[in-house]
């Protein structure tokens, strides 16, 4: 018997659908909680090549929500541990790994070689970077996030509106899984939906995952969904993320991190100040100059950029240091 008989018997799959799955290359950014069910189910389904990108190592505190790993793998790079597990799950699947972060310098190459891109990093900076790159290259993006007992997953780009069309602005909520907590089964539910939407995209299902949003509230056990096929792309110039290598002395560079947080500024000529100091309106770039705002996650930089946009319509770029430095 073929190991894929139980899915090939489905009218939506069949032999031709299984061939599409087996010939596909899926890029998975992040190898944590969301990626645990994503990688296991995509590997089990027989996806031809899985490309996994993550700089972190397996820690004991990961295991309650990342059952892809076990105690014997603690201390290993997550991508290496994932490859060990996935090779045992399905030796037919090629697993390629990159122990690095996604950043503006490598995003285009990674995305260009993929049939579907999965955003499992749970980082707004990464989500916007992936959306911008996938929109440019017309690649489908399945993005998800979980916090506490709630989460969502959506299918963006390619034939659907981008992540920016649905989320034109970063929420002001600064909570993370580390500060607000998260339960493993909630992450598993969202991750499993993400895997299903990836497979549905490969199979070109009649109810396309692209343009679809699914929201889960496991506090009340409520699920909802809506389509956003007609969502409009932002009309104003968006804030985009760049790498340090693209900085020049002509830029107005503001490092919003304190010296206690980052002793070395993002660039030798960078000005140091807090968001409040920057937002007093006294720092206006010269005509034709680019304003570059840097912080760790991108949230402070985004908020400062939003304030600057109120009185200046020039070029604004952001740097999220967490997306450039292996954690």
From TrEMBL:
Superkingdom of origin: Bacteria
Coiled-coil region list: none
Keywords of this entry: Nucleotidyltransferase, Transferase
GO MF annotation: an example: nucleotidyltransferase activity
One family name in Pfam for this protein: ThiF
Gene3D superfamilies, sorted: NAD(P)-binding Rossmann-like Domain
GO CC aspect terms: cytoplasm
Segments forming domain THIF-type NAD/FAD binding fold: 4-230
Family membership: Belongs to the HesA/MoeB/ThiF family.
Name of the molecule in the record: Molybdopterin or thiamine biosynthesis adenylyltransferase
Biological source species: Xenorhabdus japonica
Taxonomic lineage: Bacteria, Pseudomonadati, Pseudomonadota, Gammaproteobacteria, Enterobacterales
């Amino acid at each position: 018997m073929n190991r894929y008989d139980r899915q090939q018997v489905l009218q939506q799959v069949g032999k031709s659908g299984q061939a599409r799955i087996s010939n596909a290359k899926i890029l998975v950014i992040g190898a944590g909680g969301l990626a645990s069910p994503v990688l296991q189910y995509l590997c089990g389904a027989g996806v031809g090549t899985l490309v996994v990108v993550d700089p972190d190592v397996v820690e004991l505190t990961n295991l309650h929500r990342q059952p892809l790993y076990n105690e014997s793998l603690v201390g290993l790079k997550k991508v290496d541990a994932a490859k060990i597990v996935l090779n045992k799950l399905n030796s037919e699947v090629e697993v390629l790994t990159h122990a690095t972060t996604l950043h503006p310098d490598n995003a285009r190459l990674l995305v260009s070689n993929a049939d579907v891109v999965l955003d499992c990093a749970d980082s707004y900076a990464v989500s916007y970077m992936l959306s911008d790159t996938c929109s440019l290259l017309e690649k489908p993006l399945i993005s998800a996030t979980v916090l506490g007992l709630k989460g969502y997953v959506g299918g963006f780009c390619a034939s659907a509106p981008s992540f920016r069309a649905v989320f034109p602005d970063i929420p002001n909520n600064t909570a993370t899984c580390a500060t607000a907590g998260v339960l493993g089964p909630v992450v598993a539910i969202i991750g499993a939906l993400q895997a299903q939407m990836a497979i549905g995209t490969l199979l070109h299902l009649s109810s396309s995952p692209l343009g679809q949003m699914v929201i889960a509230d496991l506090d009340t056990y409520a699920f909802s969904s809506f389509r956003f096929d007609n969502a409009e792309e932002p009309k104003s110039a968006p804030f985009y993320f760049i790498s340090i290598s693209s900085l020049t002395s002509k830029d107005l560079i503001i490092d919003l991190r304190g010296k206690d947080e980052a002793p070395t500024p993002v660039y030798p000529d960078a000005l140091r100040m807090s968001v409040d100091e920057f937002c007093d309106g006294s720092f206006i770039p010269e005509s034709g100059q680019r304003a570059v705002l840097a912080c760790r996650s991108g949230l402070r930089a985004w908020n400062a950029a939003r304030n600057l946009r109120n009185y200046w319509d020039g070029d604004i770029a952001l740097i999220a240091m967490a997306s450039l430095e292996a954690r």
